[in-house]
């Protein structure tokens, strides 16, 4: 499948899959989307507490890097697990401009370390932030009550509806600790129904730039 690097409306880059007309991040702003969906409406709920995060779709590493920057700023201990079945290649990583756009040049080595770290092995990225990249299909996830927070950032329902199935959300529900949270950019009714059917309590929030709405789901006990 042909892939190209494109610049999104906030100046940050992403990877675009021409055959699907689908991008790894919003064309309206990759960084803006990540901060709004995953930090503002997800990580911020756990401020001042250690947190374990599962990312569904490690991709370009943008969400992980922004979460690392938050851990530095807030001095928050974060254990981060990113699941990815098809890792991006080294050339694509080098083409991403996140470090410059986030004005985080002093952490360029951290962004590189994230991508160079060994798969399926826990790496101490800093004294506060650990990263485990798992090369794994989403339907192979079998974690049980390990995570406080899930960043659900799979390709969209339009191109990969199987990633938004009841079976996948059951795995997400099982993976969360009691009172855990899942956040996603998605806001389709079929996605909400799948979440509710496995036990999630779902709320609709204002979406990132270019998108009207998004979902946040709670594993309430």
Topology:
Layout (H helix, E strand, L loop, with lengths): L2 E5 L5 E5 L4 E2 L6 H11 L10 E6 L5 H13 L3 E7 L5 H6 L2 H4 L6 H9 L5 E3 L4 E7 L11 E6 L13 H10 E9 L4 H9 L3 E6 L6 E6 L3
Helix pairs in contact: 1-2, 6-7
Report on the structure:
The chain has 221 residues and is an alpha/beta fold. It is 28% helix and 28% strand. It contains 7 helices and 11 strands. The chain has an 8-stranded mixed beta sheet with strand order 6-7-5-4-8-9-11-10. Strand 6 (122-124) and strand 7 form a beta hairpin. Helix 1 (30-40) crosses helix 2 (62-74). The longest helix is centred in the first third of the chain and has 13 residues, at 62-74. The protein is globular and about 40 Å long.
Short synopsis of the structure:
With 221 residues, this protein is α/β, with parallel strands linked by helices. The chain is built from 7 helices and 11 strands.
Structural class: alpha/beta
Question: Count of DSSP helices?
Answer: 7
Low-confidence stretches: none
**Main sheet properties:** 8 strands, mixed
**How confident is the prediction overall: mean pLDDT?**
96
Biggest sheet strand order reads 6-7-5-4-8-9-11-10
Distance between the termini: 43 Å
